[in-house]
């Protein structure tokens, strides 16, 4: 890494030199699409809503209507959102790296909308529903006006296919994510507070296996001091500049 270059150029050089890139995204990457994060002061969902009353299996058991309605509101909000330049830049990065994994904690489907392909969804997807009793995927009957609607197979309530606190992450996705973290030579951690486990453990697994670590976030997180580079700012501004940044010439890299 040429020492005289700025952090953005250094990051661009790391991306250019990497052969196996793994990215972990969180709610921050969708913030510029108008999808609220969870923990940002004032604008985060948890500033207004209590996660214990909305994002746990106990909350759903106690008041399924309230939980369903809250997710229906969020689904509508997300349906109106478009991928932003941060999502698009990651889709472009995938085109230039033959070994690229995009792990997301987001449930909004905006990476798919931007054209990313190799996506590992750790916390599910808000656009899908499943049976609350048997966990199988299930699509509500459009004529079912009950809230929540019932499983067409067994008449149990349906729930959003997302991972709530205290629930296990989908095992295959989690295994693929840790595998991608341990096998990469560059790990990018973008727009996550790095507080929620096991996802927050992924960058540490990458570091332990010898990868370089870049964090992109306007704020400091518990991960920041472990990152080789911390690019401070909104992902929708930094990522497009990162993929467009001039790479150091081979002459400059030798010096
Ligand atoms: C920008 C930006 C811009 C803003 N550009 N950046 C070890 C220690 C302690 C606790 C635990 C542990 N292991 C497990 C736990 C318990 C728990 C946990 O981690 N709790 C902690 C909070 C303390 N974990 C779990 O329960 C998980 N399950 C589990 O571990 O199962 C095993 C088990 C089972 C039973 C018993 C014991 C173990 C499940 C976690 C599920 C999380 N679910 C949610 C809701 C998903 C559905 C929904 O959408 O409603 O997932 S909670 C919420 O947090 C959501 C997110 O995916 C997740 C992470 O949040 P994220 O993405 O980081 O967002 P924010 O808001 O926190 O941060 C946004 C960041 O963006 C900020 O840093 C901003 O600065 C930044 N930003 N604008 C770039 N423009």
SSE layout:
Layout: H1 7-17, E1 20-25, H2 28-31, H3 45-48, H4 51-54, H5 57-62, H6 64-79, H7 85-95, E2 99-104, H8 110-114, E3 119-121, E4 124-131, E5 158-162, H9 171-183, E6 186-190, H10 202-208, E7 212-216, E8 229-231, H11 235-244, H12 250-254
Parallel strand pairs: 1-2, 1-6, 2-3, 6-7, 7-8
Antiparallel strand pairs: 4-5
Helix pairs in contact: 1-11, 7-11, 9-10
The structure holds ligand BJW.
The site of ligand BJW has 37 residues, from helix 2 and helix 11.
- Overall 3D shape: elongated
Regions with pLDDT < 50 over 5+ consecutive residues? Answer: 250-255
| Major sheet | 6 strands, parallel
Strand order of the largest sheet: 3-2-1-6-7-8
> How large is the share of residues in beta strands?
15-25%
Q: What small molecules accompany the polymer chains?
A: ligand BJW
Q: What is the straight-line distance between the termini? A: 10 Å
**Mean pLDDT, as a whole number?**
94
Question: How many DSSP-defined strands?
Answer: 8
Gyration radius, rounded: 19 Å
Determine the number of helices (DSSP H or I, runs of at least 4 residues): 12
Classify the helix fraction into a percent range. Answer: 25-40%
Describe what this molecule looks like in 3D:
The structure is a single chain. With 255 residues, the protein is an alpha/beta fold. It has twelve helices and eight strands. It has a six-stranded parallel sheet with strand order 3-2-1-6-7-8, sandwiched between helices. α8 (110-114) links the parallel β2 (99-104) and β3 (119-121). α1 (7-17) packs across α11. The radius of gyration is 19 Å and the shape is elongated. Ligand BJW binds next to α2 and α11. The site of ligand BJW has 37 residues, from α2 and α11.
